[in-house]
Amino acid sequence: MKAVVFDLDNTLFDHTGCAVAGLRSWVTELGITPTDELIAEWFVIEEDQFNRFLAGELTHQGQRRGRLRAFLPVLGLPVPVADAELDEVFTGYLTQYTNNWIAYPDARPALEVARSNGWRVGVLTNGSTRQQNAKVAAIGLADLIDVVCTSEALGVSKPDPLAYQRVCEALGVEPGETLMIGDNLELDVIAARAAGLSAHHLDRAAGATLTQLVGRQ
Ligand SMILES: [Mg+2]
Prior knowledge:
There is one protein chain. The chain is an alpha/beta fold. It has two domains: 125 residues, HAD superfamily/HAD-like (Rossmann fold, 3-Layer(aba) Sandwich); 85 residues, DNA polymerase, domain 1, CATH 1.10.150. Helices cover 54% and strands 11% of the residues. The chain contains ten helices and five strands; from the N terminus they run E-H-H-H-H-H-E-H-E-H-H-E-H-E-H. The protein is globular and about 55 Å long. Bound molecules: magnesium ion. Magnesium ion binds next to loops.
């Protein structure tokens, strides 16, 4: 191996943890008790709207507005008609989400192992360039990562084989000498292998850790 490529959300970056914490604070600010059912509904809506962004049906801001149009009625709140008002409401959530941004404790040690192996280090993430780079910087990992490739910047998203090939090109390595690690079995493992990379699945629920997967060759 000459390089390792990590997924970002729920791999290096604890998206679900940050989103749950942020959502609880924001919903409370709105005067509503955040229940597990409300939180589960938020994630169903988030996935639906984010997939529409990845499919090119919505802009990144558009999927945020779509999330609120679907979620505010769940809270029993009125939906503003004007986009600017919706954006202002979303800022309330975004502020709380951003306040909770954090890396998994094993992220930095895993990147350090990769560096000590002499590997190039990349990130391949489906998301917006501005937000994903802001996350990498905020969680203090930017100094250990050579390349961050977002679906927005690449113009293709996982599982398109081109996405994996482009991150390898950006790192100056061949797919056959690159390891991909991520939490999503389909996007980070099966599709990565189909594009010619090696891949390990980060199944945290089953006890897998990033340091273990980077070390296991
Ligand atoms: Mg992920």
